[in-house]
Write a structure and sequence with these properties.
homodimer; about 325 residues; alpha+beta; seven-stranded mixed beta sheet; four-stranded mixed beta sheet; 8 helices; 13 strands; globular
Chain lengths: ~325, ~325
C-alpha cells in the first residue's frame, strides 16, 4: 500500500493550491468558515460482522456524518481531511474501497479530499474526518440558540429508520422486505441534508441542527439553555415506511437519523416548507416550543415525558 | 464527564463566531488556508507504561505534531479541531490533563481549539487533531518541489534527540543525565518550529518541509520526483547534545525530530541563517543537492548510501 495520495484530489488553480506530497493542504479560503470533525470506531459505531457490511459504504458514512454537521449549520461543503487508523492485517482492496467511498461521497457534495493521514493500529479501526465548509454570512446560519415560545418545531425526511436498521443489523438478520432494506440503508448509508440546510437558511430559518443524537435530545438542546420546553405530537412524527405508530420511540431516542430539525414562527415555517418542497425534501411540523420546561410527547390523550436518551459518550 | 465544551474556546466577535454547543465551529476565514491532520495511536505512537508518561504532555504532543506540519509550510496556526477516542475506563482527571495539554499548546501558538469530538473505544486510545492555519500568499510558502542542483540543504535545531529518547523510553529506563532528559523531552514534548517556518518563508526560502519521518526520507522527497540526488556531510549534522558522532544514523532515520529542512541557493541560505539567528534557532547547512540520483552520506573518506528508513505506515 504505497500511500493515500492517489485518493487525494489533485491541486488545481481554482480550489486547491498544494497537496498531495506536501506536509499540509493549501486552499483558497472563504470569508466565513464552518468546520467539524467526527470519528467512527469499530465495535462502537459499526461492525465488520454486520450482514452485508462493505467498506465503500463505510467510507460514505464517515463523510455523511460529518457532512450532516455542515448541513445542520446551513453550510456548503468545501474540503475534507481524513485520518484513518487501520490494522496492518486489513486487505489492501478493502482500504481501497474505504477510500473510494470517502471520495465518491465527497464529490457528490462538491467537496475535495484535500489531505489525510494513515496510521497503523493494533485495535479497532478508527476513522476520523474533518469537514470544512463555507457560509455566505456570519449571521445567515442555523444555530441551537434563539428559539422562542410559540415557534413551530419541524423535521426533514422520515424518522426511526436508522434505529430500526441498527436493530436489524445487530440481530444478525438480513433485511428481507423493501422497508427493511430502506431502514438498513438509513443506518449504513445516510444522506446528508446539505441542500435542505441551505434552503432552510435561505428561507430565513435561523434555529436548527441535526438530530443524529436523537430528536428528543436535540429538542432539549434547543430549549434547555433558556429554560423553555416543548411539546411534540406523536401522531405527527413522520415515521419511516413500515414502522408502526407504537414504535415511535425509535424516532425520538438514539435515532441516528441524519435529518435536520428547525424551529421558527409558524408563517416562516410555511415559507421554509414550500422551499424544501421544491427540492423534494419533506419538512414536517411535529410540535411547538412552549414556556413549560421539559419535553412532552403527546399521543392522543396521553402525555409522556421522555428521559433524555440521546447517545452521549461518557455522559 | 459532561462534555468537551468547557475545553473549547468561547466564541468571540473577532475570531470564532459559533461553537461550542452548535454542530460545527464557525470562524472568519483567511484568503489562503493551510490544513493538516495527524493521529496518534496508543501502543504505536506512545505507551502509557513509559517511565514518567503523563497525559498533559501527550496532549501537547498531539498538537505539536500537527503544528509542525503547518510550520513545514511556513504557515501561521489559527484553529484546531480535536477528535479523541478514549476507553470508558480512563480516569476523568487524565482526560482533563489531556485536554489541558492540548489547550495550552494551542494557546502558546495563538491557535483556538474551535471544536472536537469525543467517542468511546474498546481499544487503544486514538487521538486526532486537525489544524487550520493561514498564509499571506499562495506563492510564499514552503513546498517539497523546486529544489535545484547546487542548492544547499539545511536543518533547524538539533537532530537525533527524539530517536535517542524513544530508545530510552522503550528500554524502560528512567532518564538519568541532563542530556538523557533532553532526549526524552525531544520525543515526548517536541517544540513545533512555527516561528522558524515563517522566518524561512520571509527570507525567500520556498523549498522545505519537516523531518519528522527522518532526514533521509525527507531529502529523498525533495529530490526524487525530479531525479536529482543529494550528498549529506555527516560531520556537519547538528547532533543533539550527548550523542556521539558514530550514532549519526539516529539523526537521519526514524528521527521523529520535529525540525525543519530547507533547500536554497547558498546566498539565499545565508540570509535565512541570519533571520533564524535573530529568533535563536540554529539553521545548519548539512549538504547539497546534486545531479546524481540517490542520497549519499559522506563521513570523511567513506560514503554510505542509506536505504530509506523513514517511518511510513503500510509501506
Amino acid at each position: 500500500l504505497r500511500s493515500i495520495s492517489r485518493y487525494l484530489d489533485v491541486p488545481s488553480a481554482g480550489l486547491l493550491v498544494a497537496a498531495p506530497g506536501d506536509d499540509a493542504a493549501v486552499w483558497r479560503g472563504d470569508p466565513i468558515v464552518v468546520a467539524t470533525t467526527d470519528t467512527m470506531v469499530e465495535e462502537i459505531d459499526f461492525r465488520l460482522q454486520w450482514p452485508g457490511f462493505d467498506f465503500r459504504t463505510l467510507g460514505r458514512r464517515l463523510m455523511a456524518i460529518n457532512l450532516s454537521d455542515l448541513a445542520a449549520m446551513g453550510a456548503e461543503p468545501r474540503h475534507a481531511l481524513v485520518s484513518l487508523s487501520l490494522r496492518g492485517t486489513l486487505h489492501v482492496s478493502d482500504v481501497g474501497r474505504l477510500y473510494r467511498g470517502i471520495a465518491e461521497q465527497a464529490h457528490r457534495f462538491h467537496c475535495t479530499v484535500a489531505g489525510g493521514d494513515l496510521s497503523g493500529t493494533l485495535g479497532p479501526l478508527t476513522l476520523t474526518a474533518t469537514l470544512v465548509g463555507r457560509l455566505d454570512s456570519a449571521r445567515a446560519l442555523l444555530r441551537r440558540s434563539g428559539a422562542r415560545p410559540g415557534w413551530v418545531i419541524a423535521v426533514t425526511g422520515q424518522l426511526g429508520g436508522a434505529a430500526a436498521g441498527l436493530r436489524l443489523l445487530e440481530s444478525g438478520g438480513k433485511p428481507g422486505s423493501r422497508d427493511e432494506r430502506a431502514w438498513v440503508s438509513a443506518q449504513l448509508d445516510p444522506k446528508p441534508r446539505i441542500a435542505a440546510g441551505r434552503a432552510l437558511v435561505e428561507s430565513g430559518i435561523r434555529v436548527g441542527g441535526d438530530i443524529s443524537d436523537g430528536l428528543s435530545r436535540e429538542v432539549e438542546r434547543l430549549v434547555e439553555p433558556t429554560r423553555l420546553g416543548a411539546t411534540i405530537e406523536v401522531a405527527r412524527l413522520p415515521l419511516a415506511r413500515g414502522l408502526r405508530r407504537k414504535q415511535w420511540a425509535l424516532a425520538v431516542t438514539d435515532s441516528e437519523d441524519f435529518e435536520l430539525i428547525c424551529a421558527a414562527p409558524p408563517a416562516r415555517m410555511r415559507i421554509a416548507q414550500r422551499a424544501l418542497q421544491r427540492i423534494n425534501v419533506p419538512l414536517t411540523p411535529v410540535g411547538e416550543i412552549d414556556r413549560q420546561p421539559g419535553i412532552r410527547f403527546r399521543d392522543g390523550a396521553r402525555t409522556e415525558s421522555l428521559q433524555t436518551a440521546g447517545y452521549e459518550h461518557f455522559r
